[in-house]
Design goal:
The structure is a homodimer. In chain A, about 40% of the residues lie in helices and about 20% in strands. Chain A has helices at about 5-15, 25-35, 40-50, 55-70, 110-125, and strands at about 40, 75, 85, 95-100, 105-110, 125-140. At the A-B interface, β4, α5 and β6 of A face β4, α5 and β6 of B. The structure holds a DNA duplex (30 and 30 nucleotides).
Chain lengths: ~140, ~140
DNA sequence: GTTGTTATTGATATTCATTATCAGTATAAT
DNA sequence: ATTATACTGATAATGAATATCAATAACAAC
């Protein structure tokens, strides 16, 4: 299976909403896609600034929201920590085991759970679009 | 099965932490336990104020955190909505189907999913303590 | 009961992520 | 080229959550 071109998805979303293409958006989507996952707005802003000094924090924030809206990023918010954005494209959906002590997280996946969730929604006449499963506890090193 | 006395749990927690008993704490835990679930700090503050005018917002907030800490409340935070606190005592754990349009939520429960989560954690050498499963989508009326 | 220590309260200030504002600029259709 | 309008970047505003602090209250020790 070929990974869909994330950048194309983003540009398509922009166009479909009647928004405009700008070099800032290009820079931001490129930086986001090539960076390691789980970035905060602040962190992406730092990266983008190194490439193109002068891009505003608000611009990065706004566009990160667009990236999330078009499905290329998931939001992870743990307690009062800053929101983090993780790329979804080319990756299967996964849930998180979050350590309450060291704040690390492990990505996990279970098809059976996914299927049960579908059925659970169905049984309640609910159309499921996305979901978030977070298991909090202690990791191998902290338990 | 007899529901454990939530108020005793709270008072025990206070004592165990070397904190002190106050009439404000009593008022707040009483109001919280007798209120319908899913309250925001603001809403509980309004209720408490009606019983004892003069109790400060910060006091309600602080004590709601203690109530959460001792396991009597779960936190629900949907998007940018205000954090809500829902009583856990005397109720089985449940997950949420959250409507993206009307913001309503349906409480659901599935033992099979719970069990799979346990196993998932185990497989990763992770000690699960609590978890949060939220399925976002469209409810019966909004789909 | 008195005293001393210290947690608590309530009012307010602070913090901090996120969103809104807005003038100037850039984009893209005609 | 013209024109309408979305975008940017700087900054202000928002708002929930937390911190601060002086006055007060709880409670253990005596």
């Amino acid at each position: 299976m070929i990974t869909p071109n994330a950048k194309e998805i983003f540009r398509g979303y922009i166009k479909a909403k009647g928004l405009r293409h700008t070099w800032q958006r290009d820079t931001i989507i490129d930086a986001f896609l090539s960076a390691a996952g789980h970035l905060t707005v602040e962190e992406l802003f730092q990266i983008v600034t190194r490439i193109h000094p002068g891009i505003g924090y608000a611009t990065v924030h706004r566009n990160l929201n667009l990236i999330r809206e078009c499905g290329l990023a998931d939001e992870i918010k743990i307690g009062n920590e800053k929101t983090r954005f993780e790329p979804t494209c080319g990756r299967t959906h996964h849930d998180h085991l979050i350590c309450l002590k060291c704040k690390c997280f492990i990505e996990v996946n279970n098809n059976q759970i996914e299927q049960l969730q579908e059925r659970l929604a169905e049984a309640n006449d609910f159309l499921p679009l996305r979901h978030k499963l977070e298991i909090y506890g202690l990791c191998k090193n902290c338990r």
